[in-house]
Amino acid sequence: MRRAVFLDRDGTLIEEVAYLRDPARVRLLPGTGEALAHLRRKGFALVLVSNQSGIGRGLVRPEELTQVHRRLEECLLAFGVRLDGAFYCPHAPWEGCECRKPRPGLLLQAMHQMGVIAEGSFLVGNTDADIAAGKAVGCTTVLLTLCPDLKHPVIGDPPADYRAGSWEEVVAYISQVGRLRHRGDNKVETTTVWQGDGCRLPNAGPFIHKPSTFE
């Protein structure tokens, strides 16, 4: 079984942009690339878990989400980083799905598909919903305050296991708590993008994006 660091996207990996649909606006937050490269070298799977209700609200098209994701992949590859998995919930809040954080469905599906165990795994996010989802599945949680979500101010309910003001602090904490050891079974060369178990977009089947290959 594998250990993972589950990662929120907006305000955690990249700058917060409401209903992001333009790949040109994808910008990594300071220290993100270096931090993920360090965690990858230490044997963690890197798994993106992100609410993207812009699709359910009709504000973002699936192909725009794909383009944004590909741009994110390009930015990370500049640091030698590949995500091991990327799982998106496309639902609007009122749809009542099980995969939208703070519900744990997105993480549970990722854990099931990727053979990840909660023990020794971490969740890094910038909202209470991220922390709640991580705690629900038994991960150690880190609240990154580098880029707060102004639409959803953090009230600390539930409290994160650790609050970090930078990616450097995140890595230091995970290194201390996780007692990192390199594990060869965490080496994965491709990214799978999933949008929830049985999640369906209008007039479409489940949205599954096979990754681009960047040389």
Q: Keywords for this structure?
A:
single chain; alpha/beta; Rossmann fold; seven-stranded parallel sheet; disordered C terminus
Chart the SSEs and their pairings:
Elements: E1 4-7, H1 32-41, E2 45-51, H2 62-77, E3 85-89, H3 105-114, E4 122-125, H4 128-137, E5 140-144, E6 162-164, H5 167-178, E7 193-194
Parallel strand pairs: 1-2, 1-4, 2-3, 3-7, 4-5, 5-6
Overview of the molecule:
With 215 residues, this protein is of the alpha/beta class. It has one domain: Rossmann fold (3-Layer(aba) Sandwich), CATH 3.40.50. 27% of the residues lie in helices and 14% in strands. The protein is built from five helices and seven strands. It has helices at 32-41, 62-77, 105-114, 128-137, 167-178, and strands spanning 4-7, 45-51, 85-89, 122-125, 140-144, 162-164, 193-194. Strands 6-5-4-1-2-3-7 form a seven-stranded parallel beta sheet, with helices on both faces.
The CATH topology comes to Rossmann fold
N to C succession of SSEs: EHEHEHEHEEHE
CATH class placement: Alpha Beta
Overall mean pLDDT stands at: 85
Largest sheet: 7 strands, parallel
Number of strands: 7
The CATH architecture category equals 3-Layer(aba) Sandwich
Overall helicity: 25-40%
The percentage of residues in β strands lies in 5-15%
Return the domain count. 1
Distance between the termini: 30 Å
Radius of gyration: 16 Å
Count of helical regions: 5
Which residues sit in consecutive blocks of at least 5 with pLDDT less than 50? 180-215
CATH homologous superfamily identity: HAD superfamily/HAD-like
Strand line-up across the major sheet: 6-5-4-1-2-3-7
Task: Indicate the structural class.
Answer: alpha/beta
